[in-house]
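Please, structure for the following, as tokens.
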Amino acid sequence: MEKLLEMAKKVCDQAEIYYNEPNSSEVLFQKGELHDIESQFQSGIALRIIKDGKLGFSYTKNLIDREEFLQNALDSLKGGVKAGYSFPLTKELPQFNTYDPHVEKVTSVEMVDHCQGMADVIMEETDAELEIAGYKETRTIRIMNTNGTDLQNISGSNGYWVNLIYPGGGAGLSRIFEEKKPFTVSKKDIAELIELYNSSSKVIDITSDKMQVLFMPGCMYTFLWRLLSGTSAKSIFENISPIKEDIGKKIMSDMISFYDDPHDDSVPGARSFDDEGVRTRKFSIIEKGVLKNFFYDLNYAKKLNAESTGHGYRSSMWGGDPITMTPTPSLRHPRIEIGDKSFEELVSMMDTGIILDGAMGAHSGNIPNGDYSVGVSPGLYVENGEIIGRVKDVMVAGNVYDTLKKVIAVENKLHTCWGGRMPAILCENISVSSK
């Protein structure tokens, strides 16, 4: 990498090298039986160059010919993509305990044994069509640039995904359990999941109405995608955010505080720098319902006469290989501040409503505007503070900014879920429609 950087320095104004090396193993169980074991090792290098105010980019999974790789980046300058920013000089960052070497020692056999143990218990006590996955991953990221930055982050995680599918359909109760070090899912967590599944086994027919909805962490990406879009500097620049003029204004319930915390070292993935080498920090976006900040990468910070907030990441809303992407404004560690109610207390507060445990079709609708219309997958039905069954062929619709004005209470615990760590949120007067 050092040699490549020196070569680039001779023909460009600035250059940056991004190295990503993920190493993972996964075991998958279906219907209580081992279905697949897979291991992956894929490293890659991406090169960004700036010359005469233009951006060049190339990437490879196998760096064989440095000259050709650099020439590909030079050739891409013909695309005329403007780059008015500079790569940062970043040093003396906080250090986190993101890597436990014991993760690498977790074997596929150990993960298979633990998954089999969970499967035996769940299949004995439920009629679920069961899926379980166990995984471990280590990842090394290194960023170097011609302005003197040379940063590295090594992280590791061990996790399990458990999905109890109701017979005759694709909907199921799923949970993610993840730690920085080797662990096993507790008997208590499995027992609670079994109890929730069994209490919701009966199918209940309902009529369309406005009612209370308990949004669970497993469906929270429905809100996240819309909040990320609305508060991204890219949306502000493109003039598609409905809250672009609302800094300092109250836009939702004072029970909602939305922030990014890359320095939370209690869970996997803490980062002291983003994918551009910019220093990260705990960053508040919404405080007690008041919009405080938008988040920026280097590119859109320059376009909007601001500074990067350390949110330049090689990612997209729909996933993908980071090596193939250039950075864009993104939140990697989003959180919603916890409240003061347990899950059991939230359920007991409901008179008539549904628990939206998972959402189907969250990618559809006008995401920039905050609108959503999702199928419940699954939705548990509550009457008088008790779960009495589940609903089918039901939709929940609204606008994220309107929905989060109708908050009754927020759970007192964060859960690992797709895209971040979230509590359950109980809202009222939400549109629920049945087929």
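Residues 216 and 424 are 4 Å apart (CA to CA). DSSP finds nine helices and 24 strands in the chain.
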